[in-house]
Amino acid sequence: MNAHVEQGGVSDGTVGKALHVMDLVASKGRPVRFAELLSESPYPKATLYRLLQTLTNQKMLAYDEDTQFYSPGLRLVRLAHAAWQQSSIAPIARPFLDELSAKAGETIHLAQLDGGQVLYVDKRNALRPVEMFSRAGKVGPAYCTGVGKAMMAFLPPDRQAEAIAMQSFFRHTPHTLAGPEELQAELQVIRQEGIAFDREEHEPGIICIAAPIIAGNGRVLGGLSITTATQKKDFDALQAHRGDLVETAAEIAQAAESWQFPG
User: Fold this and answer.
1) Taking the model in full, what pTM does it have?
2) Which of 32, 89, 193, 206 is the most exposed place for a label (fewest CB within 10 A)?
3) What domains can you pick out in the chain, each with its CATH number?
């Protein structure tokens, strides 16, 4: 049985198992059949079928009897929208993202840390969009993205150590940081500079400059980045947006002071 299930599934009983199945369906990014879920699930056939039946009855998953495919249900969509409004910094940040997008003319990302990963909660496309991994609602690695490193750099030491321990350090490109020592060293520099960079570390040809969104009490609320392609701009050109980026991050933090976000 895999570690993820032991930590967040079996140990949490039926609810944990059901959430693990929902994660499995959602992770596909497309409708999926029972046989494929069974091949990747740690649960016996009967258990998996029972969990899928319950989730479908509760409209957390949808099942198409003609195609025999499972997909996320509309109830889950409603819950996700409520979470976006109540637990995400995105609604507060929206007008500031619009303004920064108009100034920079490049792709703008707003993200929050989800454990050791980056959850993209909002995005503005560039005037000339470039195909890239990120989109609102998608989860990405923290160790090789500008927003991820910007947020991790300003975490308290114990939380930062936990976040670093959660990283996979898969080499996405030749520029990806190789391990925790390299990441720790870069986080120290980012904390001093107040700015993080993605130097084609996650995707070839994609670079960004990022800043943390920090509340007055020092709590990291999120991360903000301006992203472009090397075929359009180099780092010197990207640096020209530094002032607007930092100012926008500070404005979002100030606007969020009266809002209570989950820990």
Assistant:
1) 0.70
2) 193
3) 3-79 (1.10.10.10), 88-255 (3.30.450.40)
